[in-house]
Amino acid sequence: MAKAAAFICSACGAAHAKWAGRCDACGAWNTLQEESAKAGPGRAPKAGRAIPLSGLDAEERPAPRAASGMAELDRVLGGGLVPGSAVLLAGDPGIGKSTLLLQAAARFAARGLSTIYISGEEASAQVRMRARRLELSDAPVRLGAETALSDILATLEAERPGLVIIDSIQTMWTDAADSAPGSVGQVRAVAHQLTAFAKRRGTAVILVGHVTKEGQIAGPRVVEHMVDTVLHFEGERGHQFRILRGVKNRFGATDEIGVFEMTGAGLAEIGNPSELFLSERGQPAPGSVVFAGIEGSRPLLVELQALVAPTPHAQPRRTVVGWDGGRLAMILAVLEARCGIPFAGLDVYLNVAGGLKIAEPAADLAVAAALLSAREGEPLAHDTVVFGEISLSGALRPVSQTENRLKEARKLGFTSAILPEGGKPGPSGGLELTRMGQLADLAGGTFGAG
Ligand code: TYD
Ligand code: MG
C-alpha cells in the first residue's frame, strides 16, 4: 500500500506528504508533525458486512439526558449530557478545567450517574486534595490516575460507567500510534478510541484539551471533528469570571454561555451575569458605554470601554480586547465616511469589561457610542444602554430580541436606551427610548460631533 500523507498540521489538521517549516494550508509555523502509517482509525480494511438501513420516517425518541443540576453547565450542553456522546472541554492551562469537571463529576454522581474521573496530569492524592478543598470528598466519584489508554479502556469495559472524564487528552498514550504522548497522532488515536467506546457502550465521555497560546487545541484541531460537543472555557487571568461557551453541539444550540466566578471554594455559578459584569463600573467616564447584549437565550449587559488618544506613531494603534478587530475597523471607517468623523492620527483602544468576548453585530452601535464618547471626551448618561447593528451605509439596523434587552436593562435599574428605528416597536417597559435611523444621528445628536 502506498504511504499516505505522513505529516499533519497540529493547528489546522491539514495533511502533507512532505515535512515543511510552515503549513501552506493555514500558514502556521513549526506545526507539522509526523504521523505513523498505522496511526488513526483507517488500518487494513476488513471484509464488510451489511448494515441495517431504515426509512426517513422511523420513530425517534429524544435522547434522554443526564443533568448535573449545575444550570450554567446543563444549559451549554443543551439540557444535559447525552449518553454515548463525546464532549471536548478546551481551555488554557490553569483556567479551571479540572476544577469545573471535578465539581460537575460530583454533581452528576450525586444524581445517580456512575462517574469515573481519570487524571493523567495529577496523582490521585492531588485530586483528592482538590476535592477536599471543594468540599466534595463525599461525592461518589471514582478516581483513577493513569495515562495508558489500553488500561483505561479495560477498566471502563469492566465498569461500564455512565460518565468518564479524561483529564487531559494530551497526557494519554496508546500503542495504536508510535509518536510521543501529546503529538497529533497520539491525541487523534486516543480521541478516536475513546469516542468509539462512548458510542459502543453508551458512556458519555468528557475529554479535557489544553489550548496553546495561539488559541488552538494543542495537537489536534482534528479532535473537534471527532466529538459531538466542543465547549471552550474562557476567561482572563487576573479576572474572576469564567465563561463556558458551546462552539459545537450535535445535541443543542451553540450560542449558549455559562457564567462562573472563581472563588476559594471552586467555581460558583452566576445566574444573573449582568450584575456581575457591571459590578466593576465606576463613575460616568468618557468612553464607557453599557451594551445590552444577548448570549444564547439570555440577555447580558456588559460595559464597553474605549480610549482614543493622539498617537505619536505614523501608524495609529487599533487594539481590541473581547471584540473583533475587523469589525472595529469597519465602524471607524463608517464613522469617517458617513459621519465625517476621522480617527486618523488617533490611537484607538477598545475593551469589553470583565474578560467577556462578544460576537454579536448588535454591539456595533454601543462600540460607536463608546468611540464617539471617548473621542469627544463626553460621558454618555450613566443610566443608558445601547444596542443596534450598523451597516456600511451608516444606516442602523434593528436587532433581534429588542424586548429582552430592554427588560434586562430595566431590571438592572437603567432608565433609557439608544436603539435603531424600525423592527417591532414593542413596549418600552418604562424606559425612555431614543430610536435612531442613522449613525450620524448618534454622532451629531448625542455627542454634537461631525
Ligand atoms: P485548574 O482547575 O487546575 O485549571 P486547569 O485544569 O484548567 O489547568 O485550576 C487552576 C488553579 O486555580 C488551581 O490551583 C486551583 C485554582 N482555582 C481556584 O482557586 N478557584 C477556582 O474557582 C478555580 C476554577 C481554580
Ligand atoms: Mg487541569
Automatic annotation (TrEMBL):
Every RecA family profile domain range: 62-211
SMART domains: AAA
Gene Ontology MF term list: ATP binding; ATP-dependent DNA damage sensor activity; damaged DNA binding; hydrolase activity; zinc ion binding
Record carries keyword Nucleotide-binding: yes
Ranges for region Lon-protease-like: 347-450
InterPro entries, A to Z: AAA+_ATPase (IPR003593), DNA_repair_RadA (IPR004504), P-loop_NTPase (IPR027417), RecA_ATP-bd (IPR020588), Ribosomal_Su5_D2-typ_SF (IPR020568), Ribsml_uS5_D2-typ_fold_subgr (IPR014721), Rubredoxin_2 (IPR041166)
PANTHER family reported for this sequence: DNA REPAIR PROTEIN RADA, DNA REPAIR PROTEIN RADA-LIKE PROTEIN
Protein name: DNA repair protein RadA
Gene of this entry: radA
